[in-house]
Design brief:
By secondary structure, this protein is α/β, with parallel strands linked by helices. The chain contains eleven helices and 16 strands.
């Protein structure tokens, strides 16, 4: 019987004074998800989704950098190329500050990146934009700089070479707003997936999770619209195991918008009931906390639960690198 794995990305949180000391997930009305839990355990969270998922599916941390995984998730060529994750940011006063308000200016940001893309011409650059001005850039270059990444604002590090010229040119045009690179790397071998979890298809709007799955040989499909992901996952569940990634929960946390986080959790519950009320094997899990108070990731112990019986005791802490073999035992 096939299993549906549902990632409630960043659903853990700080207790919120605006919610009477409850966390958004505790305040949200989620009768379908919460009503049918046969296993309620805990596992070790990780600071980023790709770190969690790689260990979840293989038992090991990733050998590939974030940008490489996302390039694979977007179907980009990584043969003899270096990948760079670009995230909207503001640079100035010696700092790089991550811009989670990028929906307000992402069209202009993408236009200015492409208007100055000729700066990278000699490296045969290729770029794909995705959520709110984020992008993956690949080039025929050996330059793999170590640069600060989100979500925590950091001291500005000048990006070397022509890529740095592009970053600063766009910032000059847009009053400090630019796409700043991080998570850079080149392709390497990947750990094999767990033998007990085969025949899986992944659905997400995030090239991060799709890249992890693609690197392990799983089928993937990027679906940007949240509501469209549910029927696609339901259809695929008749043919094999399914991984359904709900990235929007994390996005509202980064925006420090606890109201929308509560709303999206309640919306997810309704959609799960609409499409999966007849599904006997669902595993819900969380990769990390994301504070809707500070906007930062919380690498803490995180809950998981299943709608089917396992040998895991209530509240038992199962190490992440053994979680899938225990659940599917």
């Amino acid at each position: 019987m096939n299993t549906l794995f549902v990632l409630l990305d960043g659903a853990e949180d700080h207790p919120n004074p605006e919610l009477g000391g409850k966390k958004p997930m505790e305040a949200a009305n989620m009768p379908f998800i919460m009503s049918n839990m046969h296993t309620k355990g805990m596992t070790t969270g990780r600071g980023y989704t790709h770190l969690f998922l790689n260990e979840f599916f293989t038992g090991h941390p990733p050998l590939l950098q974030r940008a490489v995984l996302e390039a694979l998730g977007l179907g980009m060529d990584m043969d003899d190329r270096t990948a760079y994750r670009l995230s909207p940011a503001r640079i100035g006063d010696g700092m790089v500050r991550w811009a989670y308000d990028s929906p307000d200016f992402c069209d202009d940001l993408e236009s200015n990146i492409m208007g100055n893309f000729h700066i990278l011409k000699k490296y045969d650059p290729q770029i794909k934009f995705f959520i709110n001005g984020r992008a993956i850039l690949t080039m025929k270059s050996d330059n793999v700089p170590e640069l600060p990444g989100p979500p925590v604002d950091a001291e500005y590090v000048k990006v070397p070479g022509e890529l740095g010229l592009l970053v600063e040119k766009v910032a000059e045009i847009m009053g400090g707003i630019t796409d700043y690179p991080w998570g850079c790397g080149r392709f390497a071998d990947q750990y094999p997936r767990f033998e007990c979890l085969d025949n899986l298809k992944a659905f997400s709007d995030s090239p991060t999770s799709l890249g992890v799955c693609a690197s392990l040989g799983y089928d993937t499909e990027i679906i940007e619209d949240l509501d469209e992901r549910f029927p696609a996952a339901r259809e695929a569940l008749d043919k094999g195991n399914v991984f359904l990634h709900l990235d929007e929960i994390d996005e509202y946390s980064h925006m420090k918008d606890w109201r929308r986080k509560v709303e999206i959790l309640e919306h997810v519950d309704k959609k799960m009931e609409e499409y999966f009320s007849d599904c006997d094997r669902i595993m819900y899990f969380i990769d990390h906390g994301t504070s809707s108070i500070t906007g930062e990731h919380l690498p803490i112990e995180v809950p998981f639960w299943t709608t089917f019986e396992t040998d895991i005791g209530e509240g038992e802490l199962v190490p992440l690198n053994t979680l899938i073999p225990r659940v599917l035992k």
